[in-house]
Amino acid sequence: MNRKVIFPALALAALALSGCATVFSKHPVGNSAVPQPAKPVELSRYLGKWYELARYEQGFQKDCEGVTADYALRQDGMISVLNRCRKPDGKISDATGRAKIVDPVTNAKLKVSFFGPFFGDYWVLDRAEDYSWAIVGEPSGRYLWILSRDANPGQARLDKMIGRAKELGYDTSMLRITKQP
What we know:
Layout: H1 3-24, H2 43-46, E1 48-56, E2 65-73, E3 79-86, E4 92-101, E5 109-115, E6 118-127, E7 133-137, E8 144-148, H3 155-167, E9 175-177
Antiparallel strand pairs: 1-2, 1-8, 1-9, 2-3, 3-4, 4-5, 5-6, 6-7, 7-8
């Protein structure tokens, strides 16, 4: 068979199998209730740099510290995404992607892609009135990120954000605190 045909076929098969693995995985669901976003998002205020304070650990973020996410409006109306983390060996790892709003009424539900035409859910579940923090998840309840505009907002503020995630129904014992410089 032609290699140009085999590679796409294998890639699609792998993607399909990974989807099945996700559905049947034993990875604990952090929130089976999955709340709807609490507030609308004013996109111009959400754009910019965010620091990850805590997350549900995922394979693609294994051992990442100093995690940041930068969002900017693109000329085509989509949002550019640059996720950055520092690995244990000190090297910086970047992941670039794009996002699109799927709920234009609230702007709180987006789809994000880091490779090709494949998009995943990204929901801004809650945020501060002044956009100083945000809690992000998605419908499966398996992903959760607590973000802040300040890399080190202090323990009291972090505890408040974790408490809010718990109010939203998340198992906060599964959170991994992210070290920021």
